[in-house]
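Example record

The entry below shows one chain as it appears in the dataset: sequence first, then structure tokens.
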Amino acid sequence: MPFPFQPQAEQITGREKRRLIAGAVAVLVVLAGVGIWGEVRPGSYGSSKNGCITVMVPGTTGGALMHQCGASARATCRQAFGSTSRIAALTRPQCRRAGLRSAGPGRAD
């Protein structure tokens, strides 16, 4: 038997309240800063541009990030514009942003 009766709660002083509030504000400021940083700096891949594509591909356990540049990006875009799959549909807008529009048969990129 831990206690035969419930001990009385101690009153929090004004100084302790200010410390708790300051700690909560500091945590909120850090979380807001991390959120803003994450929104402004999305990562080393960034968005699709200048001949590089970045596509979030859905999967059974979440998703995967596909990032390609140069010849591999051109080949992926060529395949995406020739296909009707869900992944191709997600890839085509990224190809357009990267300037890798569909070449079509007999035309150059």
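Notes for this example: The longest helix spans residues 14-40. Residues 12-41 form one domain.
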